[in-house]
Amino acid sequence: MLRMWEFLLEATCCRSLVIIYNGACLLQIGVAAESSTDAGNAMVVDAAKVMNGTLYQGVKKSGAQNYLANLSLYPGRSELPFLPSNTQAVILQPLGDKGFIIIGGDTIRGFTSSDQAWITLISEKLDSTISKLEANIPLPIQDRFPS
Ligand SMILES: *[C@@H]1O[C@H](CO)[C@@H](O)[C@H](O)[C@H]1NC(C)=O
Ligand SMILES: *[C@@H]1O[C@H](CO)[C@@H](O)[C@H](O)[C@H]1NC(C)=O
């Protein structure tokens, strides 16, 4: 997982990575927006709210990656308040049918088609890993009963 992050950071314009799965935020690394209530700390990702938004519903429906190459053109960017304000491009990658990966970059059209293909490949591996973990480890009660 950390090697995936290192690769993204070194080889692409990626600056932020968020993984949301089954109603919970599994991972938030890289640059984040500052919390409005807790100065100096990262804004917490409200996973339920993000999964309820148009961006997630769109990738869930299509089952395919969505590349917002010029983020300022998409009204749905307001659903990602936890990304830093200088985020210019975002890749939304579905993770099986229960989650997704949000990758924010600091350059308009900064992700190449090979970055996109690689992210899709990683998401398939990650989905099978998470599914196996889920099968073996009992989840907290609030995660087993999504509201
Ligand atoms: C999800 O969307 C529904 C309908 O728009 C809304 O009533 C509900 O409060 C939303 N839930 C969250 C967690 O944002
Ligand atoms: C991105 O979108 C903004 C807002 O519409 C526009 O002003 C800008 O020229 C676009 N940038 C590129 C590189 O397409």
Automatic annotation (TrEMBL):
Assigned keywords, A-Z: Signal
A GO CC annotation given for this chain: chloroplast
Top-level taxonomic group: Eukaryota
Signal peptide as annotated in the record: 1-16
Record flagged with keyword Signal: yes
Stretches assigned to coiled coil: none
One GO process term, biological-process aspect: cytochrome b6f complex assembly
The protein's name in its UniProt record: Uncharacterized protein
Organism this protein belongs to: Stephania japonica
Phylogenetic classification of the source organism: Eukaryota, Viridiplantae, Streptophyta, Embryophyta, Tracheophyta
